[in-house]
Amino acid sequence: MPLPQQIIYLFIMALPIACVAWTVTHEEVFREPREYCEKKSQNGKSIGVRKFFYLFTCEYCFSHYVVLIFLIITQYQLLYTGWRGYLIAFFGLVWIANVYMSLFGFIRVGMKSEKIESKIKEVKLKECEENI
Fold first, then answer.
1. Could you count the other beta carbons within 10 Å of the beta carbon of residue 54?
2. What is the CA radius of gyration of the chain?
3. How far apart are CA 113 and CA 130, in angstroms?
4. What gap in Å lies between CA 97 and CA 128, rounded to an integer?
5. Measured between alpha carbons, how far is 35 from 31 in angstroms, rounded to an integer?
6. How far apart are CA 100 and CA 82, in angstroms?
7. CA 93: distance to chain centroid?
8. Reduced to 3 states, what is the DSSP secondary structure of residue 15?
9. Residue 12 and residue 30: Cα distance in Å, rounded?
10. pLDDT tens for residues 21-73?
11. Residue ranges of the alpha helices (H) in the chain?
12. Residue 63 burial by Cβ neighbours in a 10 Å radius (0-12, 13-18, 19+)
């Protein structure tokens, strides 16, 4: 595969990887399993159990496993063929996916703060209207 196409694949494949990792580790749909994993990661009897369950609560850690699954499915390689291409693709996809998740988290925090500010303004406006 030509290098420009490999780079395009890198940035496109990182999108669903980031989506899966973020959804499992942050969104409401997986809240109950995530809370279970959080408890097990803190109260597990062995270090292996605690580390295993922690992987499902950290988007960075979990993204490594999602990338591994994507590499098995797609057989995507970056720069080289064979094991070296898989290794570079693995870390490249993890990095790009985590950049995407960081950007999404930053945008989401901004949206939440704007929503809170708007509610505060609404309450103040209601108070002013009631005082008039």
1. 17
2. 21
3. 26
4. 46
5. 6
6. 27
7. 12
8. helix
9. 24
10. 999 998 889 999 999 999 999 998 999 999 999 988 989 999 999 999 999 99
11. 3-26, 31-43, 47-54, 59-74, 83-131
12. buried
